[in-house]
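Final report, Chapter 2: Outcomes

The project's central promise was a pipeline that accepts a single protein chain and returns its three-dimensional structure in a standardized token representation, suitable for archiving and comparison. That pipeline is now operational. To close this chapter, we reproduce one record exactly as it appears in the project archive, with the input sequence first and the structure output second.
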Amino acid sequence: MAGVGAERPVAVLRGNRVVVCSAVARAEGVRRGMRRREAQGCCPKLVVAQDDPDRDARLFEPIVGAVDATVPGVEVLRPGLIVLGARGAARYFGSEEAAAEQLVDAVAVAGAEAQIGIADALSTAVLAARGGAIVAPGEGARYLASLPVSELAVEPSLAAPERAELVDLLHRLGLRRIGDFARLSPAEVASRFGADAVLAHRIARALPERPPSARPPAPELTVELDCDPPIDRVDAAAFAGRQLSTRLHAVLSAAGASCTRLAISARTEAGEELTRIWRCARPLTAPDTADRVRWQLDGWLTHRDRPTAPIVALRLEPVEVVAAGALQLGLWGGEGEEAERARRVLVRVQGLLGGEAVRIGVLSGGRGPAERVTMIALGDELAPAADPAQPWPGRLPEPAPTVLLLQRPTVGLTAADGTPVEVTDRGLFTADPARLRWGHKQWALLGWAGPWPVTDRWWSTADHPTVAIRAQVQLDAEPTEIRAVLLVFDAHTWHAEGVYE
């Protein structure tokens, strides 16, 4: 952070939660995901800043320049994270340790702190940098094996947004360490999980994360823009970057390719040539490219060693491309674009019908399926009513119902002889359930699970405790009908609380 010494604890917040914290802050107990008040409780001297990618990119450019001046060939993964080849630097400075010391010193002179990781694979080096480790050649998989499996999702430049769901699933399956996940065979991962899991499995085994199908780009994919008038302001640079990004992706689309490494170049009236390479874990979209161009030009134009003359030409050159099939488009259009388009529509609806008319579901803590969803008005802080990370004894086991029935219609559960099935004081069925009646329909049961009694507020003397008794039943129904139902027993009556599809 500008104006804050490297010895001060610093945390960056997004949505009132810590998303990044410095090593000094971590030593005081601050962790990612903490709320602001909790983090300040751990570290009263914590310096807090709000998440701002434009600011981060602008302030990071001098750091990139300092590293590039020490070891050429820097690639930017995101503001705050860069990679470069270690072999040449190690030969020049005498060893990898000496090269790391030189880079740390260069970053310190630029006014920041740095942690360095060195490994055979890029992804392993990025994870090693979090611990400031130098991994011996061929030891990447062994180094990663002892790390928590959650490390596969912490770095956004290596992980897709859905990686958090994969990590949660692996954790529930008992695969708590990266080594546990790595021991699965590629065939087992590919057949049981999604495409992102295959990439995560390669990272867990310390294999190169770039697919071998990557090919050198054709020269005609490069796009250029002559700036008339010349650019010397950030707002003009952002407009030119958007225009050039649109042209680049039109060319890439026509060629059936997507870009994963992009060189951004600029030429000034004085003949200065500026170039920076950005690397991405996933193929770039047009908005992604426009953001990176804007960040880079902002860094160049606001740096103290800014060009001596305005920019007269911009060039975007794909350094590495993959087949366009590597980029799966979303339901509403291009990836990244769909969320913004949907949000604009929802904001418009909210303006017409009121703030509470559009609400978003947030995972919450609770024992029943309805309790585990907190509905929050669009635009408000996405804070759940209860912490989902806390233990919830008696919580409904997986899987969760696909559809929740908020009206909870009354159903009948009977034994084979037609006797109504209820629940005893000990939380057991009075008889084995055999049929379910719902309205005018009834089905035989193929199986059932439960019952699970849960008593809320049993400690309270002011309120009567609430007892919920749930059971899951599988129906002998047609493929087009309901196949399984979540039941809840209340006041000697069974109700349908959810449906499994």
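Archive annotation: Residues 211-215, 325-336, 457-465 have pLDDT under 50 and may be disordered.
This record, like all others produced under the grant, will remain available to the consortium after the project formally closes.
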